[in-house]
Amino acid sequence: MTIYDFYADTKTRPTAEMRKAVLNCQVGDEQKDEDPTTSELCARVAELLGKEAAVFLPSGTMCNEIAIKVHTNPGDEVICEQSCHIINFETGGPAAISGVMIRAIEGRNGIFTADQVHASIRPNSRYMPESTLLCVEQTANMGGGAIWPLEQLDSVAMAAKDAGLATHMDGARLMNAVAKTGIPAARYAQHYDTVWIDFTKGLGAPVGAVLAGSQEFIIQAWRLKQRLGGAMRQSGIVASMCLHALDHHVERLSDDNALAAHLGQEIAKLPMVDQVLPVETNIVIFDLADNAPSAAEVVEQLKAEGILTGAFGERRIRVVTHIDVNPAAGRVLLQGLSRLLGTPKTEEAFNDA
Ligand SMILES: *Cc1c(COP(=O)(O)O)cnc(C)c1O
After folding, report:
1. How confident is the model at residue 113 (pLDDT cuts 50, 70, 90)?
2. Which residues line ligand 1 (CB under 6 A)?
3. Rounded to the nearest 5 degrees, what angle is found at the Cα of 49, between the Cα atoms of 223 and 319?
C-alpha cells in the first residue's frame, strides 16, 4: 500500500542526492573539533542566523534544553507560550535538567504580545522566582505553523531585554517562515540571544539541529553537550546531509507552504469541519464539528487507507506538508477526508493544487 504521510515533516527520508552527499565528505572526531564537515555546517548556520558561533546537536530538543540551562539558574522562571514544544513535548526537561519553573502565556495561535510579556515578568521580590528567559517559537507549531510578524517578534524581545531577561528562539521551522516572507533568518533572530534550526523538519535531513549564539554562549553550550552525551565523533556523515539540505532544500519550502495553503482552503469546505487555523506555512490544523467522528477515529480510518495524520486533542487534527508529499498526495488526502467528513460545502468539487 502506498503511504501518504502527512503526520509530520519529520517523516521525510533522505533523497538519493542527499545520500550521495555523504560519500565524499571529510570526517574526523567532532569532540575535538576535528570534523571539517560539521565545522563547515556550524559556520554556515551561524552566518545564516547572524550569530558569532554555533554547535551541532543531535536534536532540536537538545538545543532548547541546553539553551535553557545556559540562560538560567535553578529556581528561575522561563516565559513561554502555553502550546509550545518546550512545555508540551520535552518530558519536563526544563524542570528536570535546569530546575526552572515555566510561566505560560496564553497567546493567539502560539503568538503573544509585549504587554503579555510585561505582565509575566516577576517584580524584584525576595518571595518570587526570578524571570530570566523568554522563549518564542518561529513558526508556532501548535499555532498551525503561524509566523510571528517581525515587529511583534522584536517588541516581545525588547520587552524581555529591557527587564534583563535573555531571549531564545526555537526556530525548528524558521526557514518555512523565511520562505514565506522573504525576511532573512538573521533578521528574525536579531534580538534573540540564541536561536536554532532543525534539519529534520522541512529541510529533510535524517539527524541534526544547529544552535547558534555568542562565542561565550557556545563555549557553555559545548560543556552541556558533552555532559548530556550529545558530543559526537565522525558526525560529518550526518552533517554532510544537513549541508546538502542548506544548498538544495531551502527554496523548495515554498512548495510545502503552497500545498498546505491549498489543503487548508479545501479542508475548510468540508461540512464536518468547524474551523481551520490560518495556514501560513506548512502546517494545517483544523477542528472537527460536533457531528463529526472524533479526531482519533478520523485519524484511525485514514490510516487504514494509508493516509497518516495526527490527532492533537478530542477534535483537532494536524496535517503537515514536506518534501515527501506532493499535490497528488494532497488529492488523496482530501478525498480520504471527504469520505469521512462529507463532500465540499460549495457546489464546486475540490480545486486542484
Ligand atoms: C520538532 C520540534 C522541536 C524538537 O525538535 P527535535 O529535533 O524533534 O528534537 C522543538 N520545537 C519545535 C517547534 C518543533 O516542532
Report:
1. very high
2. 59-61, 64, 85, 137, 141, 170, 172, 198, 200, 209
3. 95
